[in-house]
Amino acid sequence: MTLVSELPGRFCSIAAALQVVGDRWSLLAVREVSFGHHRFGEILEGTGAPRDRLSARLKALVEAEVLERRQYSDAPPRSDYHLTPAGKDLLPVLRSLMAWGDRWAVETPPVTLLHHDHELEPTTVCGTCGERVHGADVHRRSNTPPA
Fold it and tell me: Are 98 and 113 in contact (CB under 8 A)?
C-alpha cells in the first residue's frame, strides 16, 4: 500500500483512502461481501469484473486489511472473504455513494435500503454533539505544517 506521504499533491486522507478503495472493482467487491457474497464466484458474478482484475483487487483489499480471507475447506483448500473492521467502516460511505447515485446517476434506483419499516435516508451526524452535519457548519484545521 502506498503511504499518503508518497502521493503527489496535497497531503490528504481522501487521496490515501482512494489508493486503497478508489476504483470501481474494489468498492463493488466490498459491496458484494457486505451483501453476504463471500466466495470468489459470487463476488465475480455480482460485480461483473474481469476475473484477473477482481483477483488483484481482492488481494489488495486483503493486504490493506479491508477484507480478510477465511479458509472454509481443507480439501481442496478454499477460502472466502469477509469484512474487517476497516471494511465495515466503509459501509456508510457506500450508502452515501448509493444515495448520490440514486439522485444523480440513475433514473430509477434499482434498490431501496430500508431502516426498520421506512426508507433509509443516509446522513452524517456529529458523533460529539449529535447534530446533523450541514456543509456550511464544517470547517477544517490543518494538522501539518505548511511545506
Answer: yes
